[in-house]
Amino acid sequence: MMEIHRTIKYDADRVKGFGKEVMSVPGCEQLEGCIQCGTCSGVCPLSIYMDYTPRQVMALTRGDFKNEVLSSHTIWLCASCYACTVECPREIRITDIMYELKQRAIHEGRYPKRFPIPVLAREFSAMVKKHGRITEMLLVFKLFLKTNPFAAMGNWRMGLDLMKTGRFSLATEKIKQHGDIARMLDATDTKKES
Length: 194
Ligand code: SF4
Ligand code: SF4
What we know:
The protein is mostly helical and 194 residues long. It has eleven helices and no strands.
């Protein structure tokens, strides 16, 4: 279980405009209407492991507490099961807001270092952008290297077996027009301009 933050928040901790910025993203607008009922936290199967519950993340986001939400483990533990979104009485798309926060955290390099989920997300998208698809072997190698290199040693046998059965390849996989993928991703990458 993560450490629970119970520190008092002050007005000086706010990054004015952050909440409005998030709520201006299509799909995130309804956050304004959050009534802090806590249904999202109640139905979330992972909230007991989170440093901030989904309800708290919604409140902190709307309240401009950018540093707290972007540095939280919660956004990375969210498994995108959509239970909160389905149950929210105000039809707030909590899962999509979590995605928006994850994206912002990656762009600002704010994710917890050596925490596998954001590292995997970043390496995965960088590889797709470069080659149009991923090379599993390389992705796993980078993940171990950037999170827990010692864990690789405990898994070398499995890697070898996967290579023998052709499930893992050492060759870099790429599609023909991979430049098109990069251009498409750049075009949808709104954070680059902000
Ligand atoms: S369920 Fe919806 S309204 Fe209730 S706290 Fe969560 S986001 Fe807010
Ligand atoms: S989508 Fe994420 S925050 Fe919502 S209930 Fe599932 S794990 Fe929890």
